Amino acid sequence: MDDRKAAVLNALVDEHIRTGQPVSSRAILEKTNLNVSSATVRNDLAALEADGYVVQPHTSAGRIPTERGFRYYIDTTDPARLRAGTRERINEFFMSFHHELRNLLKQTSELLTDITAYPAVVIGPGLVGEKIHGLHLVQLGSHVLLMVLVTEAGQVTQELVRLPTAIESHQVARLEDALVRSLVDRTLAEAREALDDAPRELPAGEAGIVATLADAAMRSEAETRELYVGGTSMLAGLWEDISKVHFILELLERESSLMKLVGSQPEGTSVLIGPELGSNELDLAVVSTSYGVDVRSSGRVAVLGPMRMNYRRTIRVVEEVGEGLTDSLSS
Amino acid sequence: MDDRKAAVLNALVDEHIRTGQPVSSRAILEKTNLNVSSATVRNDLAALEADGYVVQPHTSAGRIPTERGFRYYIDTTDPARLRAGTRERINEFFMSFHHELRNLLKQTSELLTDITAYPAVVIGPGLVGEKIHGLHLVQLGSHVLLMVLVTEAGQVTQELVRLPTAIESHQVARLEDALVRSLVDRTLAEAREALDDAPRELPAGEAGIVATLADAAMRSEAETRELYVGGTSMLAGLWEDISKVHFILELLERESSLMKLVGSQPEGTSVLIGPELGSNELDLAVVSTSYGVDVRSSGRVAVLGPMRMNYRRTIRVVEEVGEGLTDSLSS
DNA sequence: GCCTAGCACTCTTGCTTGCTGACTGCTAAG
DNA sequence: CTTAGCAGTCAGCAAGCAAGAGTGCTAGGC
């Protein structure tokens, strides 16, 4: 790949991203300052086509990049510098302090989507913690309790517990006491052992309930990462085909798919396109980066769009937002 | 409105819901067992049009219901009986116990969307509680703490607190103790008064931090209802026009709009269509019902779709699911 | 050996036209 | 009040046509 071919390819991808249309040899000529004729560009295009970087949708049309063409463009083009207004907007967002964690993350996804005009995903910080730090019981119905568990790292689960027998409200406080004494400041494994002692202090009827509650606590061990999706309405305009919109919406709904796409990337920034995302023939690109420094405060932010997304700008924005979030959570 | 006109109108709406197309006089004849000719039906249709129940998209087309026509249909038609398989599916869902509150609500919205094929919304239970029941501090960064607050009713907020000075990990436990002693088991108003006493026990540097943390606790008072939206991918197929899909997606993203549409309804089942939802000329219908018995465990479940939604079935499904959720949370 | 002007060829796109079929409204009679 | 019959209207579809955009190829120039 010589210099001119590279320039032609990058100009072509740039232009295709801008217009969404096949790009003609003349358009490339206008966008570059190569001192050659359109016929020369056409020769280069033919070579690029032979190498699999571009294709022609039909004989008398311009070229559009293949997935390989996009890949080359992404790997060789520098991220854009953001306009001062945009940088300022991001800085302001993270300057003004956000009080509620969930709100911060939700609004971060909205910030990303506002600036990039693509749907955005934020994966919440890990907050993985083995030890139980707090435990609270709330009675919802005669047979139903809500048990709120807080781990040492700040992870919260709200467990529902259905009791075999009705319970009086004055018993709830006593049960809570018993559970707090036997579970708090212990890992779940340790707690299980400690359990055998706890029931002895309680009336016979309540011993069984403690066991039920403790079982519920055990179950909550699984890490549940929180996911914040913003800007789904954007995608009505991004993909022409309504069936593609449907597909992407479905993807955004399935938390597991999103985690696989975004969550399983190595630390740092990554751009994945089309087939690299698993399913073939998928007009999708995902730009993501990690935030946070230790496992408690770290997660990922991501933006997704069609393959012809504005990578230069989007990558920059995602990185800036990732840094802002890092500062907010761990400085 | 005589009997035959009512029958004609209801048959027309039924058929329009089924096909989405304008309904001709002949089609109505085939769907009803009226012993009249199509010309008679045409006369009735002309009368219904004069009364504003139906309109003709163009001269030589059948009729489609107006918003008033839909309203009449909804108010006079009985909900459908569900197929045994569907009823069983709902029962099974609520029989198998769900351990995590957030999961239960999320999956309930998915159940609704699965059965009805429309997007669904679940508004979480109130869980409003004034008194602070638990408080936990977690250190995220040198200047950032995460404070988890649990109210008496089980409501959880995760407050981020930025400190003016760096903090050592051994101080966190002491701060937590101080806050627990002064805030737990008090309402936020009472806590504010109690605050003046707490700092005396602590080293000078930490007194200011306690004040900062207490301020954060005060701020979290605002009730934050949780919203679970499922089945957004459905709407790619429900509305023809992509700009409508865009509009509805936007609506589903704005929690405030959803709360206004769904949350502000009186207890029981309600069906709102088009203009009744605020903005005019809006092809939208919302079927919702309340669940739970007291303020702690009660919220709403809702389904939304185009005005030509299958009301008879949808109303039934929403009500059954609402009842199931009520049992799960408050029996 | 690389570049370029010129030209023939291809294929999409948009427009027009005409036709068919679906419904209605109206009229006059039962 | 109902109905048979008929004329009138309009959307939807397909075919045909012209214009325009863009390429590939060839032959000649540096």
Commentary on this structure:
Two copies of one chain form a homodimer. By secondary structure, chain A is α+β, with helices and mostly antiparallel strands. Helix content of chain A is 48%, strand content 16%. The first copy, chain A, contains 13 helices and ten strands. In chain A, strands 7-3-10-9-8 form a five-stranded antiparallel sheet, sandwiched between helices. In chain A, α6 (101-116) packs antiparallel against α13. The interface between A and B is large, with 59 and 58 residues. Chain B binds a DNA duplex (30 and 30 nucleotides) through α3.
Q: From N to C, what is the helix and strand string of chain A?
A: HHHEEHHHEEEEHHHEHHHEEEH
Name the helicity range of chain A.
Answer: 40-55%
Largest interface: A-B, 59 and 58 residues
Number of helices of chain A: 13
Tell me, rounded to a whole number, the average pLDDT of chain A. Answer: 90
How do the strands line up in the largest sheet of chain A?
7-3-10-9-8
Q: What share of the residues of chain A does DSSP label as strand, in percent?
A: 15-25%
- Helix/strand-derived category of chain A reads alpha+beta
Cα radius of gyration of chain A in angstroms: 27 Å
Poorly predicted regions of chain A: none
Shape of chain A: elongated
The main sheet of chain A comes to: 5 strands, antiparallel
- Indicate the multimeric state: homodimer
Number of strands of chain A: 10
The termini of chain A sit apart by 45 Å
